[in-house]
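are you around this afternoon, could really use another pair of eyes. what follows is a protein written twice so to speak, once as letters and once as structure tokens for the fold. i want to understand how the tokens follow from the sequence so walk me through it. anything you notice is useful, everything is just below.
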Amino acid sequence: MKTVIITGANGNLGTATVKKFLDEGYRVVGVDSASNHLDFALKHANFEIQTVNLGEESESEKFVNDLISKHGKVEAALLLVGGFAAGGIAETTGSDLKKMFTLNFETAFYTARPLFQHMIKQDYGRLVFVGARPALVAEQGKGLMAYGLSKSLLFKFAEYLNAEARGKNVVASVIVPSTIDTSINRKSMPDVNPDIWVKAEQIADVLEFICSEKGLPLREPVYKIYNNA
């Protein structure tokens, strides 16, 4: 049984991903400050939920090391936690940058660093980061300065990890969803047809594919999960 860490487990994407991985027979360790959307998982024999300040390096490292000691191996980590902020260059302050940097990059880095070293030693592992289209397309990112810049670091981070892991069965991937079909997005964008958006369950399917035997040959992947948005 593979052990997978899912951060942001109580969010829209997180809950769909927890359900998918439990259904596929993984041991799932969810990380979030709440679990009110995870009632379906709380009594599952292969699920546990932990609260960890992932923006704090020593706490993240202890969490990872304790988990490795408990289960022996961690085969995958889906680092879904993050945050969003609007604002172009005129509105973006240093404080805005630091907040987005912590939420979108440091939370991933502090978890991935000890996990990557563990995965190199065991010669197997999958790390998945959540990028964003505004980090790839300047026209979309110019009004989301702090958000886009913080997300752009994840692409380069994955490149560095894959370069170091060359020849090993350890892969860092980046998924890039378009607008996710959620009740909040439907309410905030009532004039847009939600059929063009991507569903959380569809993203969860891609995440499971990455961690499955079918994904074994893939290296240095970036998955643009846009649907028609």
Summary: The CA atoms of residues 115 and 167 lie 18 Å apart.
